[in-house]
Amino acid sequence: MNKGCNVSNAKNESKRRHIFVSHHHKDDAGVDKMTDLLKRGGCDARNSSIRALRPENQERMKKGMVKDETIRRWLRAKISWAGAVVVLVGKETHSRPWVDWEIEQAHKQGKRIIGVYEQGGTEADLPKNLHKYRDALVGWQSDRIMDAIDGKLDNSQKSDGTAWPKRDIKRIKCQ
């Protein structure tokens, strides 16, 4: 079963991909850089992830005025809309509990999970659930990111470009 992206059938939209980009919010600029990279590679990536909040909403979050269950419900819907989840691997990604939660949700929903190293990201920065559930892990090249999203690439590479040992993991979708 191909867990790839939702792809539009319209001729002029044949390279549109619906993705959810899981990332540390300090890496918001990296999300823009990645979608620009994909655009230059001929892909129209539609991202449903939560981006930087307005200052008043950030303050509400800090004060605990937004319940975690509300955030989880919102994130589940955004992940559900996407055909694949792309995890930006930066220096602090592994320490973000919401990133690990998003990866687990993507796994539960049967989504393809692709890790993409940001500049400076290393294997030490991989979230625990990305180790467990990833379908692919690639560097900062549009063709490799697209092939991973589309299910044409199912292997992983280290941040230096060398291959990870092949993992033979059977996955089943929970009902």
Major beta-sheet overview: 5 strands, parallel
Shape: globular
Assembly context of the chains: single chain
| The CATH C-level class name | Alpha Beta
In DSSP terms, counting alpha (H) and pi (I) runs of 4 or more, how many helices? Answer: 6
Strand arrangement, major sheet: 2-1-3-4-5
Q: pLDDT under 50 segments (min length 5)? A: 1-13
Gyration radius, rounded: 16 Å
Helix content: 25-40%
Order of helices and strands: EHEHHEHEHEH
Through-space gap between termini: 15 Å
CATH level-two architecture: 3-Layer(aba) Sandwich
Strand content: 5-15%
Tally of distinct domains: 1
- How many beta strands in the DSSP annotation? 5
By helix and strand content, what is the structural category?
alpha/beta
Overall pLDDT:
82
Q: Look up the CATH topology.
A: Rossmann fold
